[in-house]
Specification:
It contains 17 helices and 31 strands. The chain has 696 residues and is an alpha/beta fold. The N terminus is likely disordered. The structure holds alpha-D-galactopyranose.
């Protein structure tokens, strides 16, 4: 059974899914922006669209507590009552992502400060310091008020704490944060001696003699100690997490039985370590927005969904926000084309979401996001978007059977926020984008039709045929041992360059690169040889692996269709037990191995020492998958994802091409009832969801 199927537990409790009898459908609802006469129409239209869950109150702190300690819940009582009468469940938010103007005026020291020392203003949102005692008191008070008043309300099915922790303000550099950082460091290191050793403070004479000398990594003349910076990122993620757990514990205490979530930005937020956070929520929920101008952005969507499901340990999760059309915060806000929002929604569903919600229900007329799309556009119901919203509501209600089924994944990609932080610090052989590397590997899996989970480097790998490790710069001894055990017991591992370099304190592992991964990979790396911008090196096959690689030739005329080149990075690799699959034909590492494979125990460990051209990376990964007996199909631009239930398997097929696709897939179409006996035809841009008996 893949690791994704294991039952998720959070904070020691079994996951408590919101009380809903179908797939959740809805969005952020902001009745406070509208006159009350509109509310009844909202509920009527929600029913028409099949909406069954709305998120209420996200940014309404200033309305609920107009002055400190004075509360006005009348309007919220009426809204929740109306929703309840209309049969619509409520995901009630604590409004703590937008402290009111009175709060910022009364507690100016609670405003966030940047690394440059700028104090951030209000009239916006997310303006608070996560380590501020005044913010802690005020946010706890409003959460307590809400929980006391609505904790047992029959409409309440989910608590939504705050909104996108860490958004806009990834860290605060004020003096209160500095004090909290020092406390966090005392807890982590116990003694200053250990801290000095871990941070390598002998370098540039940075030794600390007392705890009070330690500061947050404010803007300095040049590079700030990287180990300090790494710890400050850990601390900042934890400081926000403390804000979440403070509110969550109040809600659990006063509103027992109602699950608590907070909306993640799983694949787009660098500064929050969601592996740590996922353990603390009752239900994982995620916000995802397409980068509208990016080609094939549906692959990025699939990656976000797979990462979110993995954070939920395979349990159902909620797509808390996405958009019906354009957003308003990209350079050019390209509208979704007809059918695109449906494909997006059903792709999230296929990858494990049991709820599809949007930002937002009704488009705002004022404020920063008035040109952001919504379920109900400014023009109202006489619109394509509204018609698509109503259609999606029907589709989701017909797809209820998919609920609580689990996604089958044969491969895993290692994703680690700590390594992400560390690899992008300054002073490295070349600038590095962690997400660019992860995405490059993910794209090849997607194109090969391989569904993957994401795993922490120290997580359980035992259920996967193939595990990919793109550039795990920070590799703990435990992670290295975990990867080694996986291969020794028969797994196939693919590790790429600049892995195994430093420990958790950003200190280079002793001996040759790749440190604790050397014996597993059967190579040593003598030197990093980053390439000039635009420089390419050619690669040549050693002829031991085929097809696709055995014929890889550095001579472009020998195989004009193949991109047998790499760029950005090369390494002087020496074999220490591994065999060469591809070697450098030219460039600074000419003649040296570029891609290797090592038999280790009962498994195989591949090493890729350079940034392979996309097509070549695809061929290398296909060869590794072939080693592991994992089928890879040619890129057809057709997404096929399986969810398995107790009695049935559900197959979602999404045709992203501009021509009809034909696949040897059988089953009953859940949306039309049509039975497909031999082949399935999916018109361009269309989606089919089929049910098969499990085992068929
Ligand atoms: C985020 C926020 C929402 C809204 C949307 C706009 O996800 O959570 O409040 O600002 O972005 O895309």
């Amino acid at each position: 059974m893949p690791a994704s199927a294991s039952a998720a537990t959070t904070a020691g409790n079994a996951v408590r899914w919101p009380r809903l009898d179908s797939i959740a459908y809805g969005g952020d609802y902001t009745p406070e922006q509208w006159p009350e006469e509109i509310w009844a129409e909202d509920v009527r239209l929600m029913r028409e669209a099949g909406v069954n869950l709305v998120t209420v109150g996200v940014f309404s702190w200033a309305l609920l507590e107009p002055s400190e300690g004075t509360f006005d819940f009348g309007w919220l009582d009426r809204v929740i009552g109306l929703l309840h009468d209309g049969g619509i469940q409520v995901d009630l938010a604590t409004p703590t992502a937008a402290p009111p103007a009175w709060f910022l005026r009364a507690y100016p020291q609670a405003r966030p400060v940047t690394a440059e020392g700028h104090v951030l203003g209000g009239a916006s949102r997310q303006s608070y310091c996560p380590s501020s005692p005044a913010y802690a008191r005020a946010s706890a008070r409003i959460a307590e008020q809400l929980a006391t008043r609505y904790g047992q309300h029959p409409a309440l099915t989910l608590w939504h704490v705050h909104n996108e922790y860490g958004c806009h303000v990834p860290a605060c550099y004020c003096d209160q944060s500095a004090r909290a950082f020092r406390d966090w460091l005392r807890e982590r290191y116990g003694s200053l001696g250990d801290l000095n050793a871990a941070w390598g403070t002998a370098f540039w004479g940075q030794r600390y003699g007392t705890w009070d000398e330690i500061d947050v990594p404010r803007r300095a003349p040049t590079t700030v100690n990287p180990a300090l910076r790494l710890d400050f990122m850990r601390f900042s993620s934890d400081a926000f997490l403390d804000c979440f757990t403070r509110e969550r514990d109040i809600l659990h205490r006063l509103s027992s039985g109602i699950p608590v979530t907070t909306n993640f930005m799983a694949s787009s937020c660098k500064n929050i370590d969601y592996w740590r956070w996922a353990r603390e929520v009752d239900v994982v929920s995620n916000d995802h927005y397409l980068v509208a101008e990016q080609a094939a952005n549906h692959i990025d969507l699939a990656m976000a969904a797979d990462l979110t499901r993995s954070l939920a340990a395979g349990a159902p999760w909620l797509l808390m926000e996405h958009s019906t059309g354009a957003v308003n915060w990209q350079r050019r806000n390209i509208a979704k084309r007809p059918g695109e929002m449906r494909r997006n929604s059903l792709a999230h569903l296929a990858r494990g979401a049991d709820g599809i919600l949007f930002y937002q229900w009704r488009a705002s007329r004022s404020g920063a996001e008035k040109f952001h799309s919504a379920m109900l556009p400014h023009g109202g119901t006489a619109s394509r978007i509204w018609r698509e919203v109503v259609q999606l509501g029907r589709d989701l209600s017909a797809l209820g059977e998919l609920r609580a089924s689990w996604v089958a994944a044969g491969a895993a990609l290692v994703w680690d926020w700590e390594s992400y932080w560390a690899v992008e610090l300054e002073g490295h052989p070349a600038e590095f984008s962690y997400k660019e590397r992860i995405s490059a590997f993910y794209r090849q899996l997607w194109r090969g039709g391989v569904t993957c989970d994401f795993v922490h480097p120290e997580g359980d790998l035992s259920g996967y045929r193939v595990v990919l490790v793109p550039s795990l710069y920070l590799t703990t001894p435990r992670a290295a041992a975990n990867l080694g055990e996986y291969v020794a017991s028969g797994g196939t591992l693919v590790v790429s360059y600049f892995s195994g370099i430093v420990d958790a304190s950003d200190t280079v592992h002793p001996g040759s690169y790749p440190g604790p991964l050397g014996s597993l990979l059967g190579v040593t790396v003598e030197e990093f040889l980053p390439l000039r911008a635009g420089e390419q090196v050619r690669l040549r096959s050693a002829g031991v692996v085929g097809p696709g690689l055995a014929d890889a030739s550095a001579d472009a005329s020998a195989d004009a269709s193949a991109d047998n080149w790499a760029d950005a990075w090369a390494e002087m690799v020496h074999l220490a037990g591994a065999e060469t699959i591809l070697s450098y034909a030219d460039g600074p590492a000419a003649g040296a191995p570029a891609v290797t494979r090592h038999s280790f125990g009962s498994g195989q460990a591949w090493y890729i020492s350079t940034r392979l051209a996309e097509d070549l990376l695809g061929r290398v990964l296909s060869a590794a998958c072939a080693d592991a007996g994992l089928a890879v199909r040619a890129d057809g631009g057709v997404e096929v994802v399986l969810r398995r239930g107790d009695d049935h398997t559900f197959i979602t097929v999404i045709n992203h091409q501009d021509r009809t696709a034909e696949l040897p897939v059988t089953g009953v179409d859940l949306l039309t009832g049509t039975r497909y006996g031999t082949r399935l035809e999916v018109p361009a841009g269309e989606v089919r969801v089929l049910r098969q008996d499990s085992g068929s």
